[in-house]
TrEMBL record:
Pfam families: Semialdhyde_dh, Semialdhyde_dhC_1. The gene is argC. InterPro entries: AGPR, AGPR_AS, AGPR_dimerisation_dom, AGPR_type-1, NAD(P)-bd_dom_sf, Semialdehyde_DH_NAD-bd. This is N-acetyl-gamma-glutamyl-phosphate reductase. Belongs to the NAGSA dehydrogenase family. Type 1 subfamily. It is an enzyme of class 1 (oxidoreductase). The active site is at C148. It catalyses: N-acetyl-L-glutamate 5-semialdehyde + phosphate + NADP(+) = N-acetyl-L-glutamyl 5-phosphate + NADPH + H(+). Pathway: Amino-acid biosynthesis; L-arginine biosynthesis; N(2)-acetyl-L-ornithine from L-glutamate: step 3/4. Residues 2-140 form the Semialdehyde dehydrogenase NAD-binding domain. It is found in: Cytoplasm. It comes from Psychrobacillus faecigallinarum.
Length: 344
């Protein structure tokens, strides 16, 4: 397969390169840049010397149709302009940004504060939460790869909401992310002196992943409910830990929750239900495509605490994108993704 990566110089792009380099079905990888075309990639990133020395290519829409797969790992508002012209041409299109995720265009405008993608392109796009949408992904040309937080949150909650085991109308989700989630463009928020030795809450009640999570709960668990979702920036590079709290429905036990999670993901390679634990953290999935989930009911409050961890750049971005590519090309989902987590 011949692959093109637009946004190769960013964090998601670099992670795609790392994964696709080891993918047995990928023969060539072209790297595109909007700001540094012509620059030899290993001059920019010396850690890629003798691996990716090639020059960065200029993005020319009419030349993009020659690829088998194109990944766009670009800020919101870029793929919505670039990809619609490629619909109906040869390449499978996998977009890592939020541009094609929200089906309701005014909702995109409200939360992203940008013009939405054309309606027909959004309609044709398929939400790439792999474990929940495999048949549609297999048939799709354009994949809207999920956001990092929604991936961690939805994988842990959807089975429990779908089976009516927890009360979604009282759901509270508290999520924490490493700083690479904000991309490689420096900002006040990600400045070392303001992130080191600091944990901060941000985008309170305004995070763009709120409507994405609500849409997916409706789509896959058939429940329409507003959620309380808060995001925090913690002083680490990679990782997301999402902790959700919800009342358990009448007659439901902790064993019911655990069994439902285990049954839902029994045939899935990348979702692990961790039953017994005394410590559960982002380092158990670091650098891998795993999502680990743990659930426990507090009998004093009758509330369930559901916790999940992912690596935001792998299962939360590039890893899930490659998993979706595998589904689109009828390959085993694990192809090129058998990464052991970097625990220490
Ligand atoms: N970081 C994460 O954990 C996750 C990110 N995402 C989403 O994935 C996308 C990429 O994120 P991330 O890699 O972190 O972001 P970065 O900021 O690290 O990288 C984005 C890249 O996009 C390129 N770019 C910028 N403007 C344009 C343009 N007008 N046309 C073409 N390319 C452009 C830039 O490269 P150049 O200047 O060379 O063109 C840049 O390196 C974002 O939409 C993000 O929200 C999703 C899930 C997780
Ligand atoms: C730590 C951090 O800043 N994370 C980013 C996640 C970016 C992302 O995934 O946003 P898209 O929906 O545009 O893809 C954030 O909270 O906005």
């Amino acid at each position: 397969m011949k692959v093109g990566i637009i946004g190769a110089t960013g964090y998601g792009g670099l992670e795609l390169i790392r994964l696709l380099h080891n993918h047995p079905e990928v023969q060539g990888i072209d790297l595109f840049s909007s700001s540094e075309e012509g620059m030899h990639f290993s001059h920019k990133y010396s850690f890629l010397m003798n691996i990716f020395d090639q020059p960065l290519l200029k993005i020319e829409t009419d030349r993009l149709a020659e690829y088998d797969v194109l990944f766009t790992s670009t800020p919101s508002g870029v793929s919505s302009e670039l990809l619609p012209a490629l619909i109906g041409t040869k390449p499978k299109l996998i977009d890592l940004s939020g541009d094609f995720r929200l089906k309701d265009l005014p909702t995109y405008e409200q939360w992203y504060k940008k013009d939405p993608a054309p309606a027909d392109a959004v309609e044709k796009s398929v939400y790439g939460l792999t474990e929940w949408n495999t048949p549609a992904i297999a048939k799709a040309q354009l994949i809207a790869n999920p956001g990092c937080y929604p991936t961690a949150v939805l994988l842990s909650l959807l089975p429990l909401i779908k089976e009516n085991l927890i009360d979604a109308s009282h759901l509270v989700i508290d999520a924490k992310s490493g700083i690479s989630g904000a991309g490689n463009k420096p900002s006040q928020m990600t400045h070392y002196s303001e992130t080191n030795e600091n944990t901060a809450i941000y985008k309170l009640h305004e995070h763009q992943h709120i409507p994405e999570i609500e849409q997916a709960i409706q789509m896959f668990a058939n429940q329409s409910t507003p959620i309380t979702f808060t995001t925090h920036l913690v002083p680490m590079t990679r990782g997301i830990l999402a902790t959700s709290y919800a009342p358990v429905n009448e007659g439901v036990t902790e064993a019911d929750l655990v069994n439902t999670l285990q049954e839902t993901y029994a045939n899935q390679s990348f979702v692990r239900i961790i039953k017994d634990m005394n410590k559960f953290g982002t380092n158990q999935v670091y650098g891998s495509n795993y999502c680990d989930i743990h659930v426990k009911v507090d009998p004093r409050t009758n509330r369930a605490t559901i916790v999940s961890v992912i690596d935001n750049l792998v299962k939360g971005a590039a890893g899930q994108a490659v998993q979706n590519m595998n589904v689109q090309f009828n390959l085993k989902q694990t192809t090129g993704l058998s990464l052991v987590p970097l625990f220490i």
